[in-house]
Amino acid sequence: MAAVRDTRRLGRSAVEVSRLGFGGNALGNLYAVVDDDLARETVDAALESGVTYVDTAPLYGHGLSERRIGDMLRGRPQGSFVLSTKVGRLLKPNGRAAPRKLSIAEGGIFEGELPFTPHFDFSYDATMRSFEDSLQRLGLGRIDVLLIHDCDAWSQGANFEPALRDVETGALRALELLKAEGSIGAFGAGVNQFEACERLMDLGDFDCFLLAGRYTLLEQGALATFLPRCVRQGVSVILGAPFNSGILVTGAVPGARYNYVPAPPEVLARVAAIKAVADAHDVPLAAAALQFVLAHPAVATVIPGARSPAEATANAALVERPIPGAFWSALKTEGLIAADAPVP
C-alpha cells in the first residue's frame, strides 16, 4: 500500500512526484460545469491531503483548466508542488460562434469551455509556442514536466505516422532543448495507447509517459512488453484515467462510462465480476483500482480526477485503505486480472 505523500522520481530526471497526483481534466468542465469556487476548493483539498503533483493540459476546457490551476498554485512556495502540462495542440480563437460538434480527440467532452478551438501541431515552432502560451495561461514562470499530448493512433487515426514524424523532427527536439536549458525538469508524452509509447521510446530518451486508461484493474495489455521495457530503461509511467472514465468507481451501473462513452456489455460484465469479488472482501472498487496500478514498479504516480473537495479527499483515503491479500489472490484465481500482474 502506497502513502499519498511518498514520492517517486520521474525516470532519470530530478523531478519527484507524489504517489497520488491530481488530474486536472475535471477542472476544464469535463462532462459538466464546475464553478470557480468549487474548483479552487477541490485543488486545495487535494494539496491538503498530501498531493504535490498536479497535471493539466491546454485541451482541458480549451485553456480553462490551465487558467484555474495556475490561479490556485500561484503564490504557493516554490518547490511545494510539481506541475505538468502538455504540447501538441494550439488553441485558436473561434470568435465565440456556436462551435461545431467536436470529436472526443478534439475535446468534445467539455461543457462551457473557453472560446478557443484546439488544433493539432507537433512541429518545433508550435511546441515552443504552446509552451509559452501555457506559461501565460498558468501565470507561472516554470512548468516542471512537459508532455506531448495525444500523438497516438487513438487521436490521430490515419494521420498517426505523419504525426509521429513531426514529433521526431519537431516536438521532441523542442523538449530536449527546453530540458537542456533548464526551462523544464522532465519531458514525456501523454497518450491513450501503450503501443504509441513504445514507438516513441525508439525515437528519443523520454523521462516518462502519461498513459491514460491502458493499465488498470480492467485491462493489463501493457504488461506484456511496454511496462517491462520501462523498468529496464528507467522510464516512469504516470497512470492517468485509473477508473477507465468512471466505471471503476460507479461499477456496472446503467450509463457507466468506459473510454469517455457508455460502456459496452462485455466491459459491464467484467466490471460486475470484479466488483462481486471486491464486495465479498469488503474492498471499495475505487480503492482497488488505485492501489492496483501503483503496485507496478514502473508506475511512479496515479492521477485520478476530482470535481469536488469530497472526491479529492476520498481519493487520498482510497490510496491508503488497507486491502487484504486474499482479495488480489481471488481476482487472479478467477482470471479477472493478469496472473503476472504485480499487486500490493
In terms of quaternary structure, the protein is: single chain
Low-confidence stretches are none
CATH fold call: TIM Barrel
Query: Which percent range describes the beta-strand content?
Result: 15-25%
Adjacency order of strands in the biggest sheet: 3-4-5-8-9-10-11-14
**Class inferred from helices and paired strands:** alpha/beta
Find the CATH superfamily. Answer: NADP-dependent oxidoreductase domain
Count of all domains = 1
How many separate helices? 12
At CATH's second level, what is the architecture? Alpha-Beta Barrel
What's the CATH class label?
Answer: Alpha Beta
Tell me the series of helices and strands, N- to C-terminal.
EEEHEHEEEHEHHEHEHEHEEHHEHH
Percent helix range: 25-40%
Categorize the overall geometry.
globular
Largest sheet, in brief, is:
8 strands, parallel
Domain NADP-dependent oxidoreductase: 19-331
Organism: Methylobrevis albus
GO molecular function: oxidoreductase activity
Pfam families: Aldo_ket_red
Write the layout of secondary structure elements.
Layout: E1 7-9, E2 16-18, E3 21-23, H1 36-48, E4 53-55, H2 64-73, E5 82-87, E6 89-93, E7 116-120, H3 124-138, E8 145-149, H4 153-156, H5 160-180, E9 186-191, H6 194-201, E10 208-212, H7 226-233, E11 236-240, H8 247-250, E12 257-258, E13 261-262, H9 265-280, H10 285-294, E14 299-303, H11 309-319, H12 325-333
Parallel strand pairs: 3-4, 4-5, 5-8, 8-9, 9-10, 10-11, 11-14
Antiparallel strand pairs: 1-2, 6-7, 12-13
GO molecular function, one term: oxidoreductase activity
Domain NADP-dependent oxidoreductase: 19-331
Pfam family, one: Aldo_ket_red
